[in-house]
Design brief:
With 211 residues, the chain is an alpha+beta fold. The strands form two sheets. Strands 1, 2, 3, 4, 5, 8, 9, 10 and 11 form a nine-stranded mixed sheet that branches.
Length: 211
Amino acid sequence: MLVIDKPAGLPVHRGPKGGASLEDHFGALTYGLPRPPSLAHRLDKDTSGCLVLGRHRKALAHLGLLFKHGKVSKTYWAVVQGGPVEDEGEIDMPLGRLDDTRGWWMKPDPDGQPSVTRWKVMGRTDALTWLALEPLTGRTHQLRVHCSAKGWPIVGDDIYGGAERFSGPILHLHAREIVVPLSKNKPPVRVVAPVPAHMRERLMACGWTGE
């Protein structure tokens, strides 16, 4: 297994229109194996932080089962506009595809797939809140849709939050920590990704004191 710190703004896959992607660089991560590693899960283009790769087929299959059965715990940090009144809680809101023309864009949908996010307030200002978000399910754009639907969209979200499409701040969503129970006989592997530069100012305003 490899865990890398994915930068915001770089897609993990090459899209239909081409362009740079994270996978272009996997050849540099073989470390003596004959094939490059492969993605064990995904992050949005604009989300930064912990991304898990399997180094070979057997590892990838093992990791795939851990993710599928919810054995891998993930904690994201987000800065949202406004914020919840309470200090912690859970969002249980099924999600479905927005429509056929919008690809992976999602919406709250009573008939959609079950989607659950646990959240905790880490700090606040008058206008912003720093949240730790734990997705208990793995739906596309889950954290972004859940926060937006609750009335506190993630800063920089130009799909669900009404941010400027090309001139606003970068999405303030960071895969901060991942815990992978890779071996039965050893403690889980815990990896923490450092806060990206574009989130530091607003996090500090909310009370973050640095790494």
